[in-house]
Amino acid sequence: MLEYRTAAVVLRTFDYGESDRLVHLYTEQIGRVTAIAKGARRSRRRFPGTLEIFSRLEVHLVDPPRAQLMRLEGAVLVEPGEGLVQQLGRFAIASQLLEMLDRLTAEGEANPELFRFSAGVLMVLCEERPDRLLALLVLLKTLARLGYRPQLVACARCGRSLPERDRVGFDVAQGGAVCPDCASGEAPAVPVWLLAGLEAGIRTPLRQRGELGIPDRAVGQAERLLSRFLQFHVGFELRTANFLSQIRDLECLDGAGVHGDTAPASGSVAAGASTSPAGRA
Ligand SMILES: [Zn+2]
Predict the structure, then answer these.
(1) Are 128 and 265 in contact (CB under 8 A)?
(2) Mean pLDDT of the chain, nearest integer
């Protein structure tokens, strides 16, 4: 019987039968798994406070021979997800991340780097103001780690560096930016500096996004670009994307960019946070 002890994030849970719960987890060691938490409905003491969305856990999983589901034997809470549920903007950005882990990764396919990145994002989200640039960069960085990295600094078709001009085409079918020779004419023109800013954004820690020089007015354009890119390459629209855009309309996500205040929303942020795995985010 295989057993695993690994860090995990709770993606979602469902009631199962009279006394159990089904738990979707994204784990560091074995990627996405569905496990049954026996007795979790009947007794709250069995998994106290752990099986909530966004919670980060240390879990003990067993994979019994011939069983269809893994069994969640035990779970210790590392970091509760409460702070992400209480604020709409944070909730929406975190939900989009979890939807990508849920729908764009294969069950049982390990990607420890993606796990650590995701855990780091959840930590950053607990501390930072949930502005639109943060939402955009979480989406872009996650896509890049999932293997859907748009070509932003060279021509996606011929590979040459983008010319020194103001705007170039962006052709989602080709994989990103296209030089004038390769542009089909239908590809919308995008400022080269914006593409360069997004490229830098993939490599820059989320907390330092204010230094990218991406102004608020350009964030909407980048959002539309990425949304089309994602739909083309992934083949569907994220359910949470609609939710995020409704929140944008309600202005629960603040504009940030170069003019925004990217200071933590609360003064109680641990000074050591930057040395945590969140540094990877
Ligand atoms: Zn080209």
Answers:
(1) yes
(2) 88
Q: How confident is the model at residue 259 (pLDDT cuts 50, 70, 90)?
A: very low
Q: How confident is the model at residue 164 (pLDDT cuts 50, 70, 90)?
A: confident
* Six token digits for residue 66: 């011939």
% the chain with pLDDT above 70: 89
Distance 216 CA to ligand 1 centre (A): 29
**Which CATH architecture does the domain made up of 85-268 adopt?**
Up-down Bundle (1.20)
Q: Give the mean pLDDT of 134-163.
A: 95
Across the beta sheet with 176-178, what order do the strands follow?
A: 176-178, 167-171, 189-191
> Which H or E run contains 247?
helix 239-250
Separation between Cα atoms, residue 148 and residue 217, nearest integer Å: 25
Ion ligand 1, residue ranges at CB < 5 A = 155, 157-158, 179, 182
Ligand 1 centroid distance, CA of 220 (Å): 26
CATH topology classification for 2-80: OB fold (Dihydrolipoamide Acetyltransferase, E2P) (2.40.50)
What is the CA(225)–ligand 1 centre distance, in A? 19
CA quadruple 196, 200, 118, 210: dihedral sign: negative
Q: What does the alpha-carbon distance between residue 186 and residue 189 come to, in Å, rounded to a whole number?
A: 9
**Cα of 186 from ligand 1 centre, angstroms:** 15
Domain boundaries, the chain: 2-80, 85-268
Distance CA 208, CA 135 (A): 14
- For 26-30, 179-183, 244-248, which range has the lowest pLDDT when averaged over its residues? 244-248
